[in-house]
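User: My instructor asked us to take a sequence, write out its structure as tokens, and then describe one feature of it. I'm not sure where to start. Here is the sequence I was given:
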Amino acid sequence: MRVTAADVGDRAAAQVLLTQVTAAHHLLALVWADGGYTGSLVEYCLAALALVLAIVKRSDDMRGFVVLPKRWIVERFFAHLMRSRRLVRDFERSIASAEAMVYWSMTMLMTRGVARPRPSRA
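Assistant: Let's start with the prediction itself. The structure tokens for your sequence are:
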């Protein structure tokens, strides 16, 4: 995860993030991304990181709501984050504080999943 200032573009932040992720996780070979990450980032990932950046695009002829493959995973992640009231609006004054709030929200989400009792199998 990477939190940046508002004046940092998504592609520039993604380039730094993907460099860090591939350094930490050597087996990573495929990443799905939104249509906003097309262009030089795709070539950079393939050439410099040996990583395939697959763009999930919405077709121009589609009207209304359409479920896109793999896109729902990211949307569900953001929906879980927005359950924390503090993340609904941008109240933080520093990037470090905003990043800490995302970590806090994900920690609460993950601990709820671990602590939830599982139904017993009969």
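For the description part of your assignment, you could build on this observation: Residues 60-115 form one domain. Try explaining in your own words what that tells you about the chain.
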